[in-house]
Amino acid sequence: MHRRRRTALSVSVALVAAAPLLAACGSQPHPGAAAVVGKDRITVAALQTQVNDVRAAQNKSPQAAELIRSSNNLSGMKLGTMIFDRVLAKAASDAGAKVTRKDIQDARAQLVKQAGSEQRLQQVYLQQNGIAPGQIDQALQEQVTASKLAAKLGGASLSTPQGQSAVLQAMMKTSRAMGVDVNPRYGVWDAKKSQLGAYKTPWITEVTKEQSAQSAGTGVSAAG
Q1: Domains of the chain, start order
Q2: Are 128 and 115 in contact (CB under 8 A)?
Q3: Distance of CA 119 to the CA centre of its chain
Q4: What is the pLDDT of residues 81-140, one digit of tens each?
Q5: What is the CA 6 to chain-centroid distance, rounded?
């Protein structure tokens, strides 16, 4: 029972990880900016604050060295999340997908119940996704928004290929319309895949794994 609860929590947390969006349109320099999304300027200082919050939380953990080592590209991951926030919010607004404060509170309450405690929830977010305790609500905002956008556009769950495709298509269109210009030091934006280099969006990877497992299971059953 405890194992099933942890698995469910792991899947839920995988859905919120949002670090795929970095751009390197960078034809024009933006002094002091890590990225510019539309008219919104993301400063290097704001990015560093996000990174510092995570490092501070990691340093308090008994697994500090391991956590820091496994998140050596934390600046890129955090900038991706900050860009993701803005593009997703615009895509959702254009589609009429609205998220309320109660939606976020309900989502958090459900995850706390799955985790068994608020402390355990914070540990999972920090260990699996490099998200500090004070950043959890924003991560949930992304999850709920993406889920509502998937339902609005494709009538499907975000945990399905159909739902994911609808969200990624909308975000690709939106990011191109807004214009996403990133400082090249942080990476290269692949608009078609909505990801930074070889980095895979965790919730896409999760569904791919589940599909592969289901296919394998079907094959064994048929053989038997």
Answers
A1: 2-217 (1.10.4030)
A2: no
A3: 21
A4: 888 889 899 999 999 999 999 999 999 999 999 999 999 999 999 999 999 999 999 999
A5: 19
